[in-house]
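Input record (one chain):
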Amino acid sequence: MRRERAISEVRHPFLIFWRFFLSTLRPGELKRLCEIKKMRDSNNPALEPFGQALLAYWRGKKSAELIHEFKNGQKKPLPVSVFFRSHEGFLTTDNAVEYCRGHILVVGAGTGVHALELEKQGYDVTAIDICPQAVQIMKERGIKDARQQDFLHFNSKRFDTIFMLGHNIGMCESLNGIKGLLRRCERLLRPGGQLLVNSVKEPEVANSPRQKGYPGELEFRLSYERNVGPWMRWLHVDFKTLTSHALECGWSTEKLIETEDGGFLARLNPSL
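The corresponding structure, as predicted from the sequence alone:
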């Protein structure tokens, strides 16, 4: 038996090296190694450039920049610093803290921009994001309950407020996906609970051969340095269209803030 084991290790010398390497690690280093492996195994390829850019900025590269490339050929550079802005730097439709109540679920929490402010205001906050690097940063920033979770598969106790800013209602990808997203929200809200969302109306481009269907049904990909992610779908929806789909699900809508460029902040309530 011992001879067979010795032969096996000779055939696989990497096992000897790996055992030696693990034995030299301190407990904290071993934990960190496991975290890195878990991060790589669970990451969404479309968001990998996003996660890399966030971590680069957080580790000191303040010039880090993401590129949004849309299927219509448009490219937009986005400074990563925007994902670390303070409350004073919130966009007009980001100012939703005053409308919150109770236990809050922050969906697509990113680096914890909103979650930090909500905790500062004394709220009980659960912050989730599908991007492992974002969750790692939230934990390092001191968010008490930060979890790597896909909202569309998230199961938990119920909340008083679901906080879905950053245009994160767009995760439903299309108008047809709105109803499924609202059903998921309904299962996670307590009686009397509310959903806070922001989005924007995309302009229609007359006679554009590239534009088919609803103008807010977008396809884009992210890139950071040489890492280019696969194409992903996202939805920007105007308030009138959102209201129409919400009503079909028995939800009421209320516009709280509106901007000149078609952006809005809205409160939605299910008929529980």
